Each structure stands twice: as C-alpha cells, then as structure tokens.
Amino acid sequence: MDKTWLVAKETYRREVKNWSFLLMIFAPFLVLLISFFFGMSSSSAFDSDTKVGIVSQNQSIVQPLKKTEDFDGYKNKAKAEKAYKDGDISGYIVVKETSTQLVANYYGTESLDNDVKTELIRVLNTQQQALNLKNAKLSEQQMQSLSQKVKFTEKTNDKKLNASDEKNLKTATFWILIFVLYFLVQTYSTIMAQDIASEKGTKIMEMIFSSMPGGKYFDGKVLGIFLEILTQLLIYAVMFSGFYYMAPHIDGVKDTFAQIKPAIDQALGQIISWGLLFVVLGLILYIVYAAVCGAIVTKAEDANKAVQPLVYLTLLGLFSSMSLSNNPDGIFAMIMSYIPFLSSFLMPLRLIKGNATGLEAAISLVILFVFLLGSIWWIRKIYPSLILQTDDNGMWKNMKRALQGMKE
C-alpha cells in the first residue's frame, strides 16, 4: 500500500506542477476577468460619449440631472452649443418654462440614449406636476387627497419552490452534472492516456515491476489522476464559496444575488442525488479505460488517437441525453440507461423526468458498479503485459498479446 501511495503522490506532483494544469484551471476565470474589464472600459467610454448638456434656470431640474453623471449644466444655450461643437458633450437640451408648461428641446446628431431620455423625462414630469398643482390652486385637503399613495405589502416564501420551478431546477442541475462529467472525461482521459503512454516500454518500468506488482502500480496511477481531479474541483468549490459569501456585500451584485440565492441553495441540495453517484462512477470508469488506451500504444503521441473510442462514447452519451430528453420513456432511453458508459448520462435524466423509479436507478447503479469492479480487476491483470510491450504491432494486436499473456 505504501508503494501505491508513493506512485500516486509522484503522479499527482508531476501533473499538478505542470503549467498546463494551472492554465486549465484559471483560463476560464482569466477570460471572464478580461471580458469584464473590457466591458467596463466600453461602458465608461459609452457613458462619456452620451453625456449631454442641460440648459435651464430652474435648479430643481438641473441638480437632480447632474447627480446622474449623464448631464452637464450650462447657464445659457450659447455655452452649451460651444461645448457641443468642441466635442465635450454629445448634445444639449434647452428647457424653457412658461406659466403653465415646461418645453424641452434637444439638439444633437444622434437620438438620446433610452436610459438618459427616461431619466430626463422623469425629472421633467416631476417638475411639470409641481407646476400643475401650483396652477390648480387646490385647498390643503385636496392636496392631501392627491398625495395619497397605494399601500403595498409583499409576502414571499423563499424556502419552497412550486412543483414546476423545482422540476426545472432539477433539470438544470442534471445538465450541470452531465456537462461536468463530459468535460472532465474529455480532459482527464487524455491526460491519463498520455501519462501512461509516456512511460511505456522504458527500462524504469521493468525495474518498478520487479519491485512491486503491476496492479498496484496501476492503482497508484489512477489514484494520482483522481487526486488531480479533486484538486481542480476543490479550487472551484473554494472560489464559488468565496463568491457566495462575498456577493451579499458587493454593490451592484448583492441585489441580483439576493434574487437568485434561493435557486442556488436549492440547486446545491439537488447535487447530492442519484445523479452525483452516476457521475462519479462514470468518471472513474472512463479514467480506468483511458489507462488501457494509453498502455496499448507504443508512442506517447499516439495517445490522443487511442483515446478516441472513449471520446465517442462520451459524445454518444451526451447527445443521446439531449435528443432523448423529450422522450425519456422510449425503448432506446430505457436500454441505454442500464448500459455502463451510457447509464451515467441517461438514468439521471429518466429519474428527473419521472420515468424511472428508485429501484430501477439502484439496479442500474449496481450494474455500473459491478462492471467497474470487474474492469479494474481485469485491467490490473493485463496492465503489466501491456505496459512492457514495445513492438509497434498496432493497438489491437498489442491488446490480443496482453490477453494471451494473462491466460498463460
């Protein structure tokens, strides 16, 4: 067992210290940050371009508009027109006030931005209403009647969702798990195959197998890759936790986060389900067979080609779950939900849609688990024969020779 852990630790250390591992983890966040900063820069540039002048002697109009940072106040039309010609503002508005009405005229090459226009109209309507009340000469009682506001109360229950919302949330959680499985398999099956292929046929492997069983060495390689996967998931979990607890205190984010927090909480609860068990076992199964793919080639550069059957299987599972999502009770969906490699994609879908019972899911899970144990037992037996072969006879001939060696 100590030697198995030693192999696992060495595999883990070599993979995690690789720059490609760090790039794989942080590249999505770098893209998001770059997009965010570009968006902020574009927004700032756009805001400066849409700044308009406001010409009015009424400070009740000018001051509220200047606070929005979309307007600049000018004392007269001539100064506003000069600023417009100099390019300091994109246009200007002249507000004239008669005894009964406000009149606003905009001058510019392009129409006002909708947000800027909405804010302008809101302030002007407030002042027009005040002018209307002044001219109406209403009594104090009439003024109080006009100022009466609607009474509004809101009662919500954030802890529970209705049946439709809960079903949609389960479906969304399922797709999250499925895409996580797909991308992890696509990434780490190639890493596993390349790692195994790079060691194939070396003198070091002969020395290692003379000091420890090949099966235990295989266990250490698989365990090391899984520690790498857990490291990546743990980093993402820490980042998500940091955002989850910091978001309520960040201006501009906390309001939106407060609205979606109940759904996030429900989704986190849904992740601990049948779907997670199928995803974990399915991922182990794919990684184990990726080791075989790496062992049957003679050159490390052929590892990508050898792992293609697993890539096609994941694509089949993904596209089958997508195409059969509207018909999960069909014969094809039912059959594939019991087949290892595919059951991780189809059985959770049937459970969410209500087309499979807990008993059926348990049977499928047992089949997957037994197949996984049988595969590990079989691969541990043929692994030494595969890894020590150096003849370039092709993948299938190498596999045949390994099976013959196992029988002997």
UniProtKB/TrEMBL annotation:
One GO cellular-component annotation of the UniProt record comes to: plasma membrane
Keyword list, A-Z: Cell membrane, Coiled coil, Membrane, Transmembrane, Transmembrane helix
The superkingdom listed in its UniProt entry is Bacteria
**Membrane topology, from the record:** Multi-pass membrane protein
- Record's InterPro entries? ABC-2_transporter_component, ABC2_TM
Instruction: List the transmembrane segments.
Output: 21-40, 172-193, 222-247, 271-297, 309-325, 331-349, 361-379
Places the protein is found: Cell membrane
> Which Pfam families does the entry link to?
ABC2_membrane_3
| Segment forming the signal sequence | none
Residue ranges annotated as coiled coil are 121-156
Q: Name one GO molecular function term.
A: ABC-type transporter activity
Location (main, coarse): membrane
ABC-2 type transporter transmembrane domain location is 19-377
Protein name, per record: ABC transporter permease
